[in-house]
Amino acid sequence: MYYRGAGAAVVVFDIVNRVSFDTMQKWVDELRINGPSDIILAICGNKCDLSSERTVDEDEARICAENVGGFYIETSARDSVNILELFERVGAKVPRMLDADESFSGLEEDNFHLVDLRSLEESERRLSCC
């Protein structure tokens, strides 16, 4: 992984695949050892549309995220559930991080701008994998 200058990381696992949760924890450990100490960390449990098949308890994932200084959110990439909210939560933390550390590498207010994704036309927001 490449960490230098990273302001945030979103680590995703599949809530219906326990092995992916265990692997996610290893990636978070790697990130905490080698990444910036002040990186914004989001733990994302994907496939919430399949919650009846879940093998990872939501409370367990939330506690895991809190224990590593991150936050937890469940999403469905298939159904576009909480995708916008995930990035809004990450984005909301960036200005606070800048206020706390003016010298944070790579993130200066002139280097980014916010886009309201809700204002995009529906056709612009729709993604297709095929």
UniProtKB/TrEMBL annotation:
Gene3D superfamilies assigned to the protein according to its UniProt record, in alphabetical order: P-loop containing nucleotide triphosphate hydrolases (3.40.50.300)
Entry-linked SUPFAM superfamilies: P-loop containing nucleoside triphosphate hydrolases (SSF52540)
Pfam families registered for this protein in UniProt: Ras
Entries under InterPro entries matching the protein: P-loop_NTPase, Small_GTPase
Alphabetical list of SMART domains matching this protein: RAB, RAS
GO molecular function terms listed in the Swiss-Prot or TrEMBL record: GTP binding; GTPase activity
Recorded superkingdom: Eukaryota
Keywords of this entry: Nucleotide-binding
Protein name, UniProt field: Uncharacterized protein
Organism encoding this protein: Attheya septentrionalis
